[in-house]
Amino acid sequence: MIASMTGYAALSSEYSSVSLALELRSVNNRFLDLQFRLPDELRSLEPVMRELLTTRLARGKIECRLTLSSQVNTAQNSLLHHAQLAALQILSQEVKSVFPTASDLSVSDILRWPGILNDHRTILNPGELHAPCLDLLQHTLQLFMTTREREGATLKNILLDRLNRIRELVAILLPRLPDILASFQSRLIQRIQTAKLNEMDERIRQEFTFFANRIDVDEELSRLQAHLDEVENTLQSGGVVGKRLDFLMQELNRETNTLASKSVDSAVSQLTVEMKVLIEQMREQVQNIE
Q1: Where in the sequence of the chain do the CATH 3.30.230 domains occur?
Q2: What is the pTM of this model?
Q3: Model confidence pLDDT, tens digit, residues 238-269
Q4: At a CB cut-off of 8 Å and minimum separation 6, what does 231 contact?
Q5: Is 150-286 in CATH node 1.20.140?
């Protein structure tokens, strides 16, 4: 399938006394650029997460954000660690017995004391969270890929619609070419006769043949149709095709520019302008494809 480079997915899960939340978001980029926002406790997971994302993603600027928060039920668990609080009280009394003038501990001093508050993240071994985090990443990545593929399908339909319109313009242009050349030849002969030149003169005939070849766009139209077929085949084959489609857009634009430069008919010029507009619209959409 065709996948867009823009996407977003977020999932959360609970493990023991902590809550895990993972978010993936991406925007366009020529290459794969992975950026991680991880808690310090889980920083060691980055190489494994990077490898997992690299196996599924090829292009785009990807941000992976993992957050870790405590899940404390105040109805069952006190925020205060009473054993540590009792030990601090004993220590404070011992210090006061030696230094009677020492200041009493304030509430903020007590709360900042290490171990007074129940912090389940410090109690829980970070290694225990590795498996749940990777499992959460797998599920989030699957949802992320689904959103990118869904948007990619929309982009594919847009490109095919523009492609068909260009084919319609080519079909309008092809039957007109013989008449355009005949009309141009007739006007040129009239000008030669007005100038009282001999149209049978060998040099004039050579110049006419040379200029007729210059304005002949049959070869450009053939290449344009071949590129259109290749774009459609690439879209139907799917996969990581963004760079190839971008190259084909350049080729389509080159052939259309040549058609415009060779045009000696206003109708042909109008058709080529519309083609260029359609190709530019396609090129902008291709920038979003992985």
Answers
A1: 7-73+126-147
A2: 0.70
A3: 899 999 999 999 999 999 998 888 776 777 78
A4: 159, 163, 245, 248, 252, 282
A5: yes
